[in-house]
Amino acid sequence: MFTSYGALYSQAATSAAQADASSAQASARAAMTETELLRHDVDRLLMLTEALWGFLKQLADAVKAIDLRDGRLDGKAAKAPPTACPQCQRLNSAKFSRCIYCGSPLPVALFGG
Length: 113
What we know:
Elements (H helix, E strand, L loop, with lengths): L4 H63 L15 E2 L6 E2 L21
Antiparallel strand pairs: 1-2
């Protein structure tokens, strides 16, 4: 049996081409899997980003409401109104815990009233 070198070379080239094709298919499958995983990550991150924007909008609305407590949108929180003494009925600054006139304890507003 005489096999020509051309036939052997052709057979070897065909085997190499089949191995290359199998390797390319495996690489393509791996790339598709990785692409699907990345697409899932992007979808999840888009959802989280949308949720964070919602929180920021709520925070901005709350800050605006706090700023408007004094009737002015000026970027400053309203100062606490004066507190009436329950004993002598005179007005005292909210920073005092006792009446500056009679010494009675003033009502305390937790969390700034």
